[in-house]
Amino acid sequence: MFHALLVGVYVDDLVITGTKDAEVAAFKEEMKATFQMSDLGPLSLYLGSSYVSRFMQRPTTEHQQAVKRIIRYIAGTLDHGLYYPRCPGEAHLVGYSDSDHGGDIDTSKSSGILFFLGKCLVSWQSVKQQVVALSSCEAEYIAASTASTQAMWLARLLGDLLGRH
């Protein structure tokens, strides 16, 4: 039988779930013994839920259809996951950014960023840019600037984890 423990991290919050309650409880106890933390109980609100959460106050039929598509996608991908094999030698951090100038019909400010450590995806985000770009070139520059900031943070984090400063 397949067993899984999933930990979602958002800033300083953890969302912990798994196929065995005992494994989830043991993980929580280990985390409490290592870090100062509190258990807020079952998840009742998660602000990271994709793009549609922006429209919770006044959802339209289109938003409800989008939520249904998201739920169908999740239901159809329960067997999927990310695989992180050991990287032989030293893995390099590689990042990509892209911007969709004017593609977001609500704000015209969307971009995405991916970072790989070797062949393993370790960081990704789809963000709403802080400003509206006047050209596709400017939109790509903004996305690359955001990716550069993330790259510097990841490089420092890796340095800390590996004891390299």
From TrEMBL:
Pfam families: RVT_2 (PF07727). Residues 5-51 form the Reverse transcriptase Ty1/copia-type domain. It comes from the Eukaryota. InterPro entries: DNA/RNA_pol_sf, RVT_2. Signal peptide: none annotated. PANTHER family: GAG-POL POLYPROTEIN, GAG-POL-RELATED RETROTRANSPOSON. This is Reverse transcriptase Ty1/copia-type domain-containing protein. The lineage of its organism: Eukaryota, Viridiplantae, Streptophyta, Embryophyta, Tracheophyta.
